[in-house]
Write a structure and sequence with these properties.
Blueprint (H helix, E strand, L loop, with lengths): L15 E6 L14 E2 L2 E2 L2 H10 L4 E5 L3 H10 L2 E2 L14 H13 L7 E6 L7 H13 L4 E7 L8 E3 L5 E3 L16 E3 L3 E5 H7 L7 E5 L11 H18 L3
Parallel strand pairs: 1-4, 1-6, 4-5, 7-12
Antiparallel strand pairs: 2-3, 6-11, 7-10, 7-11, 8-9
Helix pairs in contact: 1-4
Length: 247
């Protein structure tokens, strides 16, 4: 938990900052956040989107890796110092890292009313997405907004396999249900969380208040957790750039 009081001083309603979350110890893709993605270090894509949006008072880097910190500083981000080992371990959560950042911010002055936590691997983040999320946050009387992707196939028809390879429905009651009769489901796009700072301090959880989501097309987003993800993400990203004339 953060040592910052939920009654800490906040900036006026226009105050907001972004924190780029960039842990250095990725196991599935070593040094993922600094790895070249379409010719640039991966973290520079979301960092540049946050800077280009032009509405954040500050864009900060949260990392445990000096090399990643140096990359972020070169792009124009600010640093509160390296993460503690507790906030950078394999079991550390996004919330732990954010609460530690809030400790550092509170020592410098009033906290921003809004914070946006952006994953350093979120190469698809755009200023337009940030604007849409902020509009929901301000107009929808909610505490958190984050992008989601619609499952392309109903999760209620999911299958599971045992060690022998035998396969069965996870929800056998839907074995004969037509897919068009099943409810639509979504999953976290793994891009960013835009939220009210005070709610995080009061609850100690990103999901501790009223939550809304921003649906993004599957073609405009890809969460990078594996080398296969990386390859698919680069294809999608290049296709998007070609359509926008930004190759």
């Amino acid at each position: 938990m953060s040592s910052v009081s939920p009654k800490a001083k906040f900036n006026p309603s226009t105050g907001m900052s972004a924190i780029l979350l960039a842990r250095g110890g990725s196991k599935r893709i070593p040094k993922k956040n600094a790895k070249l993605f379409r010719g640039r270090p991966l973290l520079t894509w979301p960092a540049q989107a946050a800077l280009d949006w032009g509405k954040f008072d500050r864009v900060l880097i949260s990392t445990d890796c000096p090399d990643i910190e140096a990359l972020a500083l070169d792009v124009g981000l600010q640093s509160l110092g390296l993460r503690s080992p507790q906030a950078a371990s394999d079991t550390a959560t996004t919330t732990q890292a954010l609460l530690e950042c809030l400790d550092g911010l509170a020592r410098q002055g009033p906290l921003p009313e809004y914070l946006c936590a952006i994953y350093a691997s979120a190469a698809f983040v755009t200023p337009d997405q940030l604007s849409a999320a902020l509009a929901q946050l301000r107009q929808g009387h909610v505490d958190l907004v984050f992008p989601v992707i619609r499952f392309s196939h109903p999760i209620w028809r999911a299958l599971q396999r045992d060690e022998a390879g035998l396969t069965r429905f996870v929800w056998p009651e839907h074995a004969s249900t037509r897919s068009q009769d099943l409810p639509v489901a979504f999953h976290d796009a793994g891009q960013f969380y835009f939220f009210r700072t005070q709610t995080l301090l009061e609850t100690g959880s990103l999901m501790g208040g009223r939550t809304a989501t921003l649906e993004v097309p599957e073609t405009q987003c890809h969460d990078i957790d594996s080398l296969v993800d990386w390859e698919l993400a680069e294809i999608k990203h290049e296709h998007r750039a070609a359509r926008a004339g930004n190759l």
